[in-house]
Specification:
168 residues; mainly beta; 0% helix; 13 strands
Length: 168
């Protein structure tokens, strides 16, 4: 009998590389629509008859101002849990991954966290620790979380934290 793998497990033997650069987000000044874009624009995007504003992201370190993440799961199921301070109310959270990205809109009364499930190359894991030990292999290095909080603007947090093996 052969070994069985979960449907979400990454089959790659080595860490995948990013297929796209970081996304750029645009916002319409009139209707407030947000549009993510990859690959740069030759001319500004338009909405409601006007150019959309490019949102500039302010970089956060993990844990800064109460924003944080945790890599959960192992080989067969893994994901990213994004957290924010209870007093903040993000409109949405975007996870930039190896193969693209995922968007989650956040209801006003949502508890201050959301989980992004990963599959295929995005689910690459070197080991089966749950939660992730955030070791030198940095399986999710290159990923980033984008939080859009109306009072704070666009915030970006790279998923590149590295813990020393003796830290818990």
């Amino acid at each position: 009998m052969g070994q069985s793998y979960g449907i979400f497990r990454c089959r790659s033997g080595s860490k995948p590389s990013l297929r796209q650069q970081a996304p750029v987000f645009y916002r319409c000044g009139e209707c407030k629509k947000i549009v993510p874009s990859y690959g740069g624009q030759a001319r500004p995007l338009q909405c409601c008859g006007q150019d959309m504003e490019e949102l500039k992201a302010r970089q956060l370190s993990p844990g800064e101002s109460g924003f944080d993440y945790q890599i959960v799961g192992g080989y067969d199921q893994n994901g990213i849990q994004a957290r924010w301070p209870r007093e903040c109310s993000p409109e949405w959270v975007w996870l930039h991954t190896f193969s693209g990205g995922q968007l989650k809109f956040i209801p006003k009364q949502k508890s201050p966290s959301v989980v992004f499930a990963l599959a295929e190359e995005d689910a690459y894991a070197y080991c089966d620790e749950d939660p992730c030990l955030e070791c030198v292999f940095r399986c999710k290095s290159g990923f980033a979380l984008y939080f859009y909080v109306p009072d704070m603007g666009l915030l970006v947090m790279p998923l590149d934290r590295l813990k020393k093996y003796w830290e818990k």
